[in-house]
Here is the input.
Amino acid sequence: MKRKLYLIFLAVLFLHLSMDAQDASKILKKVEKKYESIKDLTATFTQNVIFGVSKMEQNFEGTLKMKKGNNYRIELEQQTIVTDGKTVWSYYHINNQVMINNYKEDPKSFSPDRVLVNVPKNYNTILLGEEILFGKKNAIIKLTPKDEKSLTKTMKVWIDLDTYLMRQIEITDVSDNFTKYIVNTIKINTNISDTEFKFDIPKNVETIDLR
Here is the structure.
């Protein structure tokens, strides 16, 4: 009798997990469809980083502008990064220095442009539940990478169930560094000018061209 109850419990648990995984997959499909419809996007965000070894904490506030075609502009307090999909300008305010390089996609990077506007793929997913964020119901989905060599250990995303936009992302990497992005505001399809993705180098700034 106990064995039968145990098997029933396992069957129910498996069914529950399978349904959660299916629900998570359906939600992410809607997120992907939403982002496919976005031509351009402007978001303000907060980034919190806690380093695994030292437990040192860093907080940043920034603005992300993106346009299809690998056009990004990330403005942080101490750094501005601009790319038109061909060239990348990295301007360091404190050093009064700009570095220029060719654009290269790095699927392993955790920069805001890689995280905030890219639907996580190649992950096992499970729906953890729902939470009110910014006054709206959000689904919380946990993702674990299928690739054992991935630099990501786990990821959690909060998805607005009205807009299907990601509003919060938490990432723990293999070194136990923890990064949280909170998306404070989002505006989509506002016809951002292409000039936003070219960087005008200020006068008296040291320029290092690595191309």
Remarks:
- The CA atoms of residues 55 and 138 lie 29 Å apart.
- Residues 2-209 form a domain with the outer membrane lipoprotein receptor (LolB), chain A fold (CATH 2.50.20.10).
- The longest strand covers residues 40-50.
